[in-house]
Amino acid sequence: MSTDSTRNLYGLDRESLAIFLSRYDVPEFHAGQVYRWMYQRDVLSPQRWTDLPRTLRARLIEDVTVDAGTLGRRTGAEDETIKYRTGLAGGGEVETVYMRQSDRVTLCVSSQIGCALDCDFCLTGKMGFKRHLTPGEIVGQVALIRRDRALDGPFNIVFMGMGEPLHNYDSTIAAVRLLCDPEGFGLSRRRVTVSTVGMAPAIEKLAEEPIRPRLAISLNATTDEVRSKLMPITGKYGIERVLEAAVRFRERTKDAFTLEYVLLSGINDTDSDAARLADIARRARAKVNLIPFNPVPGWLTYRPPSRARTEAIRDRLSDRGTRVSIRWSRGAQARAACGQLALLPDTPGEAPMEVSG
């Protein structure tokens, strides 16, 4: 953890690094060198930044930290999913997930400790909101797991861990820029996806960003009446307002977006829901990703529909011309699946985990 007496450089962009280094009266190009050492080469010790002048390295060793965080407890599942407890440079912890399917690797990162939006089917919301993560704490999760898993090829990032990314807009976008910079982490923006509950003004703001991630919208109901019970944010941004923002995003950027739909047995999985969802997808020109609910016994009372029912909903959507896929559960054995991340005990009656930050 960084101390109050030293500046943590990790998470700063080139401009911020240049401003910081100006106190040493050195050429501005040194900011680009430091930037590449931290993000492209994953070398966090100033002593090893050998293309910097020795005197500058000595000053940096004395004056700064370069803290990407730490990896703590790992919990594995039979499907090769690994859930990491990630210690943050600014204090506190989040959960981050590594997933592998064949040769496809995806990292699921967190953007907040807890979440303020309190979706009723998501365990993270039961924590309440603690704080936003900084850009360095977001990309630090990626750097730590990239190193731990020795990832040397392209991989995917999804902002689908703890927190609502667009509630922490500035840090999320700063992190996306670091991830997609060829001299940073070097990922294509097509490999980075931000999932949101539907913060409409932020979606519209995202459309104006020069470096944008892919967009996924967590819909989860086909009427405001049902959605407001599942997702309180609906009282502020109803389905039509969210779709309006998403369509504006597509028209402004020419980028497609996905509608995510968590299937809850007896709640949002009726034939009428399937018909309305197909109509929403048609009007929005969006693909639908069906996500059978991942149970958390003791904490959440919802249940997923049967596999047969899930496939029947998929087929109904497909028959109506909807592009649709099913995201089958991965990592549930480690409580690492969609909607299961939280710094909470296995059951509500157990002693709570200490959460700082």
Q: Which architecture of the largest domain per CATH? A: Alpha-Beta Barrel
Q: Please estimate the helix content.
A: 25-40%
Proportion of residues in β-strands: 15-25%
Annotated CATH homologous superfamily of the largest domain? Aldolase class I
Span between N and C termini? 12 Å
Shape: globular
Helices, by number, come to 10
How many β strands by DSSP? 14
**Strand-and-helix sequence, N→C?**
EHHHEEEEEEEHEHEHEHHEHEHE
Whole-number total of structural domains = 2
Rg (CA only):
21 Å
| Name of the top-level CATH class of the largest domain | Alpha Beta
Q: Average pLDDT across residues? A: 93
If strands are numbered along the chain, what order do they take across the biggest sheet?
3-4-5-6-9-10-11-12-13-14
Unreliably modeled segments: 350-357
CATH level-3 fold name of the largest domain: TIM Barrel
Can you walk through the features of this model?
The protein is built from ten helices and 14 strands. The model is unreliable at 350-357 (pLDDT under 50). The radius of gyration is 21 Å and the shape is globular. The N and C termini lie close together (12 Å). The longest helix has 15 residues, at 239-253. A ten-stranded mixed β-sheet has the order 3-4-5-6-9-10-11-12-13-14, covered by helices on one side. The chain has a two-stranded parallel sheet with strand order 1-2. Strands 7-8 form a two-stranded antiparallel ribbon. Strand 4 (82-87) and strand 5 form a beta hairpin. The chain is 31% helix and 19% strand. By secondary structure, it is α/β, with parallel strands linked by helices. The protein folds into two domains: 7-65, DNA polymerase, domain 1 (Orthogonal Bundle), CATH 1.10.150; 70-334, Alpha-Beta Barrel (TIM Barrel), CATH 3.20.20.70.
